Amino acid sequence: MTVTFEPGEQLGDCPGYGRLWTASTISGFGSYVSTLAIGALIVLTLNGGSTEVGLVNAARWLPYMLFGLVAGAVVDRVRRRPLLVATDLGRGILLFAVPVLAAIDQLNVVWLMALLAAFGLMSLFNDTAFQAFVPRLVPANLLTSAHARLDQSDAVAQTSGPVLAGALISLVGAPMAVIVDAVSYLVSGLLLWRVTVIEPATHRTSVRGVPGEAAEGLRWVYRHPTLRALALTTHAWFLCSAVTGAVLIPFALRTLGLSPFALGLALAAAGVGGLGGSLVAVRLGTRLGAGRVVIASRAATALAWTLVALSTESAAGWLLFGAGQLLLGLSMGAENANEMGYRQGVTPDRLQGRMNATMRSVNRAMIVIGAPLGGWLGDRIGYSGVLWMAAFGFLAVATTLGLSSFRNARLDDAYVNPV
Questions:
Q1: Do the domain assignments include residue 2?
Q2: Which of 144-158, 183-197, 200-214, 273-287 has the lowest mean pLDDT?
Q3: CA-CA distances (angstroms) from residue 349 to 81, 316, 369?
Q4: Could you give the angle at which helices 50-75 and 210-223 cross, rounded to 10 degrees?
């Protein structure tokens, strides 16, 4: 099913998009709270290091590697709104187990890995359904604007969420701070339940057809003249990002000597940058082309992590750390809407779930590999050394994509394949 509107239509004319945007904003706000809270819980409450942070991060994304392609085929067979509602409510209920286990003194890294693996399985189906659901509410020519609007609210959440998380961790402890995220998912599920949309009937085909449908999604992504280069370099980007994610919090709390609240403030700078990047994303994509914007943004990501790697335990070093986070948010804010708008625009509705699942499952598989690798390296060669390695990796990603045909990709070209 493809949504079409007459020329001149705006996002406000798309029924259901407002509730979708609100639900995404609320759950995104909670997610930024729990991201810092979980990391601080491991380091401060459970006395773990970057290895433990990496293992928990890997458990969170393991379902994407194991079941990602299956999820894409499932999403393309079913109505997407009920799946979004069920997985949001399920994730909210699941997160309440973290403070409960902490209250009875039973929380440890193994339990945390198990909970986040179950959480990740629900998130896999939710993320796949969400990305495939947006084109059912928004026409192709408004997809980039729709994702830019989502990115803008996400940037606001990224700005305020870590600050609130830092304050809550200092006041009530990391386990209790996770409750904010649990509530946000419950609210998101209820909002999505009220979205009105006409979806195609459920496909009543045999389960035996799933492998063939998953293979069709793989062929679409990796044989497409521009999606192939985008997908492969994005996988490498996620590997580098997972490595940095395993060492960032221990680096900030132990090497730089930041408090949880100060770290929250520094991470909020990424939200400020993300808001700025998302505000100009559509204009940049229209003027320069989606390909050039994505490539330049990835080069800026390399520079951002270079600034973080240069940070030291001093006032100047803390400012450098914050500047790196600001630039990181700016680059990601400018990139995401252009990348998402392009790849969804060139993909027909019947393949949306599988296209998104293919890219996300392999991306998250890179996290499963990179997070424990980054944690292991951080505890052995030092956090700064790992950050330098990742910065060079991001630069290689940007260079490789710049040499491919994707550099000529434009948003206008993505609006020609609504079949």
A1: no
A2: 200-214
A3: 15, 50, 31
A4: 110
Give percent of the chain above pLDDT 90.
31
Mean pLDDT of the chain: 85
Per the structure block, which two tokens stand in for 28?
A: 């995104």
Taking only the tens place, the pLDDT of each residue in 18-29 is 888 889 888 888
CB atoms within 10 A of CB 281: 28
Which of 123, 150, 115, 130 has the alpha carbon at shortest distance from 29? 150
Scored b (16 or more CB within 10 A) or e, 340-376 reads bbbbbbbbebbbbbbbbbbbbbbbbbbbbbbbbbbbb
Rounded to an integer, what distance in angstroms lies between the CA atom of residue 130 and that of residue 116?
20
Q: Which residue has the higher pLDDT, 255 or 351?
A: 255
- Whether residue 111 is contained in a domain is answered as yes
Q: What CATH number did the domain enclosing 220 receive?
A: 1.20.1250.20
- Whether residue 155 lies inside any domain: the answer is yes
Query: Would 9 be classed as within a structural domain?
Result: no
Tokens 């419950």 locate to: 186
| Whether pLDDT at 356 is above 90 | no
- 158-181 residue pLDDT tens: 777 777 888 888 888 888 888 888
Name the domain count of the chain.
Answer: 1
Q: Is the pLDDT of residue 128 over 60?
A: yes
Whole-number pLDDT of residue 7: 43
Q: Averaged over 209-223, what is the pLDDT?
A: 81
Tokens 């929380």 label which residue?
107
Residue 119 and residue 256 in contact, taking contact as beta carbons nearer than 8 Å: no
Residue carrying the six token digits 């600050």: 163
Rounded Cα distance, 352 and 131, in Å: 8
- What lies within 8 Å, CB to CB, of 167 at 6+ separation is 261, 264
Q: In terms of residue numbers, what domain contains 31?
A: 15-194+210-415
* Beta carbons within 10 angstroms of residue 141's beta carbon: 18
pLDDT recorded at residue 2? 46
